[in-house]
Amino acid sequence: MNYDAIxxxxxxxxxxAGIRLAYYGRKVCLIEKHFxxxxxxxxxxxxxxNLDVGLHAMTNYCTPQNKTLSPFRKILRQLRxxxxxxxxxxxxxxxICFKSASLNFNNDFNYFKSQLHExxxxxxxxxxxxxxxxxxxxxxxxxxxxxxxxxxISSIITDPLLTEMLLCPLSYYGSACENDMEFGQFxxxxxxxFYEGFSRPYEGVRKxxxxxxKKFKECGGxxxxxxxxxxxxxxxxxxxxxxxxxxEEISAPKILSTxxxxxxxxxxxxxNRTACAVTPGKLSFTEAIFILKDDIxxxxxxxxxxxxxxxxxKFSYQRPAKITNxxxxxxxxxxxxxxxxxxxxxxxxxxxxxxxxIWHSLDAAEYKKQKNEVLTGAINVIKRFIPGFNENLxxxxxxxxxxxxxxxxGHINGAVYGTADKSKNGTTRIRNLFxxxxxxxxxGIIGAILSGISIANLHFLMNE
Length: 464
Ligand SMILES: Cc1cc2nc3c(=O)[nH]c(=O)nc-3n(C[C@H](O)[C@H](O)[C@H](O)COP(=O)(O)OP(=O)(O)OC[C@H]3O[C@@H](n4cnc5c(N)ncnc54)[C@H](O)[C@@H]3O)c2cc1C
Prior knowledge:
Helices cover 35% and strands 21% of the residues. With 464 residues, the chain is an alpha/beta fold.
């Protein structure tokens, strides 16, 4: 055996698992096919600008003074990091904007509650009951039977509009299921977004990745970039070794994959496509990133950090019939966090649900044309929310699509939240091959980091 553990994929979950194992003296090899780490939440440079692939915001904000053992504190403790390492700055104010009602929220849950009482006075008591249900649920039970969040919420909240509005931001930031969420996942996302809230480091996702990568290396972990795993060689239900694109074969008694459940099983040398019960994820997005010439944000008095909008009162969270759905989406303004000094660039990001099959079927010319359509669609969305915005204010833009996500991270269908068939306890049909990250089921940046930590603890450290 060359290593004690091999980790496939250096996204947030792979980096976090790697730190845990290396910290406890395991000889661990972290293999990443891309030339940078970060995966779905990485970064790149284009047109002279530093751009984040994914980051709108980190969830689960807690102040440096708050010592409660929140998920963020757990991460700091488990990874032996300090609060100031991430230099997080809280959001200003975000909004859920539907046809008939809007709700503002920030990182003070009492503010959200007061908004709720104002906009949905008839639901005040029901909302308290929902909070009791949320607080009494053990969302970290890895063996819990799945439960529909929509069913639970609508059995307590009697105004359907409020149910839709609550599901909207939580689905966008962490659901692999169409038009619903698993209730445990709803509880995780509810706490992480409404109880704790959003933040962002001044430098964006580079800061987060930099901290994790540095820690991994300090602990003695080996990171192999530009290295793709081509197959996982199975013998009698055990992963004997992995073969890299270079042809090199390496082995370890246990392997952790963070590339997705189906993506991992597809690499298994004994994979039987027809017998595999895991269904591919189908929820993907387009995102348009704009750098603006002038500070229209301040001039227009626009202080929203994130707007989750939906043009009707029924939230549609599903693969759209059309190539991209502009009737619902997310607008993020990275400038609207409480930094000490303003960001150098004025940035807006617009995210919309997209049909991966249609994007996948396009030839090069049509793909280019459709990307231009996304540009127009996203501009029209911004015009509705920021008075005075127009195309002439755009200095630079970039668009990514389900194809981009697929190409750079290997996720089938460019499905950002993976399959709906999660492996909550991280096991697979192969005895020594485990899953962490997206398809273990804790989603988003904090979720992925927690997933890496939990699965490393459970299957690599505790049971040895
Ligand atoms: C557009 C967008 C916006 C987002 N916004 C936010 C946000 O604002 N806040 C938030 O909390 N979350 C956000 N997310 C979600 C968040 O990025 C993910 O949930 C999280 O990063 C998943 O991490 P992971 O480690 O599970 O998986 P991944 O990031 O997918 O990591 C898997 C890694 O495996 C590598 N890999 C794949 N195949 C192979 C192979 N064969 N060999 C070697 N390496 C391989 C990939 O290159 C990748 O680096 C966003 C995602 C996207 C796409």
